[in-house]
Amino acid sequence: MADVTQQIDAISRLADEELAAVGTIAQLEQFRIKYLGAKGSIKGLMSLLGQTPKDQKPTVGQHINALKDRVSGAFEARKASFSAADSGADATDVTEPGLRPQIGNRHILAKVTNELTELFGRMGFSLASGPEVEDEFHNFIALNIPLSHPARDPLDNFYLAAETGEGQATALDRGPQEQLTLLRTQTSTVQIRVMEKQKPPIRVVIPGRVYRPDTHDDTHLSMFHQLEALVVERNVTMVDLKSTILQFAHAYFGADAKIRFRPSFFPFTEPSAEVDVWFDLPGGKSRWVELGGCGMVHPNVFKAVDVDSEQFTGWAFGFGIERIAMRKYGINNIRLFVENDVRFLEQF
Ligand code: DAH
User: Fold this and answer.
1) Ligand 1 centroid – CA 294 distance (Å)
2) Which of 229, 225, 220 is nearest to 293 (CA)?
3) Residue 228, φ and ψ in degrees, nearest 5
4) Is 295 in the pocket of ligand 1 (CB under 6 A)?
5) Is residue 271 within 8 Å of 238, Cβ to Cβ?
6) pLDDT digit string, tens, across residues 113-146
7) Quick count: other Cβ atoms within 10 Å of Cβ 35?
């Protein structure tokens, strides 16, 4: 009995020492075979049990079992630590950089719109807005665009069906009281809405969506955005208009930006001009691109909103925000703004 117990203790000590010295998976396997294998030393102890006096068998048996449990427990723990380190599965390396959640970013148009309203904000303009579904008064009549004007052609506007259900067919063919609604074609509508509510002096910018049944190409969409500006004060002149636009262009596009004014016609301004900006494009494709229109507010517009044109003058412009963004960020196709291609969107 003393003999067996001594052997148990000796094996126990050896097993502990050897397990502590194990450095590789191969050594661990050697350890397992040596102590826990079918011909291992713990199994060997079992065979000694046969020679043990009968009355001592239970105690010796218990000792051997306890040893076996302890060694296999220690072996399993060691094995687990190896596989964790190996596969990295359970191991947490707290020094590793974390997984970044994918987050989106502001759309380029929203970004440009913010930049523009902020820039004009610094020039003393406040922000205004109006509805996208408009009536003819705000989209045409008050802007000095009479019923007979070609701009009101159903082919050039998204009229919404009138209550008769004959919206488009009746667009040019109805009494003065019958107002159709349409998706606004210009943010100039909001000039009217602002002047209806507010007396001069007025100094606002109006960013917003507009709709036109245009054929899509690299610079046209049937839905796009405009930045409208309106200033109404005593004694403002074309000089204020021109210098404000130049100041904006140089602040936003850079001191070397080239801008030109071309005489033009809009029913709601007199005189009127169109504004072009020079696009420096590679491959001999450089050209002037139209930003939009501008001019001095027409007296008929003031009359429609009860502003005394003897006391006040005003100027306005309406520019395409997509065109501004294209010039600023070198974007060559307006379709990119609405295609939602992440590879495009994440560049800004
Ligand atoms: N509303 C015009 C358009 O969409 C642009 C425009 C021209 C706006 C002259 C203005 C302006 O405010 O004064 O084509």
Assistant:
1) 6
2) 229
3) -100, 145
4) yes
5) yes
6) 999 999 999 999 999 999 999 999 999 999 999 9
7) 24
- Cβ of 293 below 6 Å from ligand 1: yes
Cα 15 to ligand 1 centre (Å)? 91
Is the Cβ atom of 269 under 6 angstroms away from ligand 1?
yes
Q: How far is CA 322 from the centre of its chain?
A: 16
Atom in ligand 1 nearest the alpha carbon of residue 210: 4
Report pLDDT for 177: 62
Question: What's the pTM?
Answer: 0.71
Of 53, 69, 76, nearest to 5 (Cα)? 53
Q: Is the pLDDT of residue 170 over 70?
A: no
263 C-alpha to ligand 1 centroid (Å):
13
Task: Write out pLDDT tens, residues 301-331.
Answer: 999 999 999 999 999 999 999 999 999 999 9
Atom of ligand 1 nearest to the CA of 229: 12
How many other CB atoms sit within 10 Å of the CB of residue 57? 13
User: Quick check: CB of 189 below 6 Å from ligand 1?
Assistant: no
Adjacent-strand bridge partners of 290: 276
Given a cut of 60, whether residue 174 has pLDDT beyond it is: no
